[in-house]
Design goal:
By secondary structure, the chain is of the alpha/beta class. Helices cover 29% and strands 17% of the residues. A 5-stranded parallel β-sheet has the order 2-1-6-5-7. The chain has a two-stranded antiparallel ribbon with strand order 3-4. It has a two-stranded antiparallel sheet with strand order 8-9. A hairpin with a 2-residue loop joins strand 10 and strand 11. It is elongated. The structure holds ligand JD8.
Length: 270
């Protein structure tokens, strides 16, 4: 996979040389190119922003540097174009399903904006010759698109064939089956007076699988009832429905921040 990232803060993307993504590059599974948008300006001050039409606070990113950058980068190969991802708080929400879709793409390009955002004609112009996804990584406001590009790339690159040692571990993960994962444990069997659930050291793989399924359902019911609502009820067994129906969901949800929450997991600062 080829990945291009356009930004005014190239160093912000240096984590792409680390860990999983870094190793994927070393092993030739991934070709990452980071471009400084200011390289596509022609004035002494390398200006990338200007005042917003219609007034308002802040500055907007000028279209010309972006147009030139995308012409050079996305137009580099005359018979193929990248999928352009434009991080924005006004985008569709990034999900595991979309990560799997992007992992099948040969070429991704990220346009990382700053200030109040990028002049919208850049997206309109790019859509004349390539697919453009305006994407948000969550309902909170960041200062720019670079962190979102790092998040999306971490989620996508680990799905590339050969990147994660045993692909097995990619299967039973949170959000893959639409459920949150249950808790995980390792040695020692007792730590600070806390025991590992007995079933996990029983060797009974069937019982362990049932326990893990129940924990995943319980957590999802408590923390993400929206995910549970999205699951096809046909895929839930009688045992699953029993777990869900006996999970007290009222405690965790819908309490203002900062109020102490009593739950069956003890006091938790809200
Ligand atoms: C791109 C500029 C900052 C946003 C004025 C603060 C994604 N989930 C997300 N939250 N925020 C972003 C994001 C924020 C960005 C840019 C993505 C480019 N900003 C702007 C509008 C309000 N400032 C994001 N993905």
């Amino acid at each position: 996979m080829r990945v291009d990232v356009i930004t005014i803060f190239p160093d912000y993307l240096s984590p792409l040389t680390l860990s999983l993504v870094g190793k994927a590059q070393e092993r030739g599974l991934l070709d990452v190119r980071v471009h400084d948008l200011r390289a596509f300006t022609h004035d002494a001050h390398r200006t990338v922003d200007d005042t917003p039409y219609g007034g308002g606070a802040g500055m907007v990113m000028r279209p010309e540097p972006w147009g030139e950058a995308l012409d050079e980068i996305a137009g580099a190969d005359d018979d193929r174009v990248p999928l352009l991802i434009v991080p924005t708080p006004a985008g569709v929400t990034f999900t595991q399903a979309r990560a799997e879709e992007y992992a099948a793409q040969p070429w991704l390009t990220f346009a990382c904006g700053r200030y109040e955002g990028i002049d919208y004609r850049v997206v309109e112009d790019a859509r004349r010759r390539m697919r453009v996804d305006e994407l948000s990584i969550g309902d909170y406001v960041l200062g720019g698109g670079e962190a979102a590009a790092l998040v999306v790339l971490e989620a996508v690159v680990r799905l590339l064939p050969g990147v994660v040692g045993n692909a097995e571990s990619l299967v039973d993960e949170s959000h893959v089956a639409g459920l949150l994962e249950g808790p995980a444990y390792t040695k020692p069997p007792t730590w600070r007076g806390l025991d590992v659930p007995e079933v996990l050291t029983s060797g009974h793989h069937g019982a362990i699988a049932s326990w893990r399924r129940a924990e995943a359902l319980r957590r999802t019911a408590q923390r993400r009832p929206d995910l549970l609502a999205a699951i096809d009820p046909e895929t839930l067994s009688a045992a699953d429905r029993d777990v869900v129906s006996t999970t007290d969901r009222g405690v965790i949800a819908a309490r203002p921040m900062g109020e102490t929450i009593r739950s069956n997991e003890g006091d938790v600062a809200g």
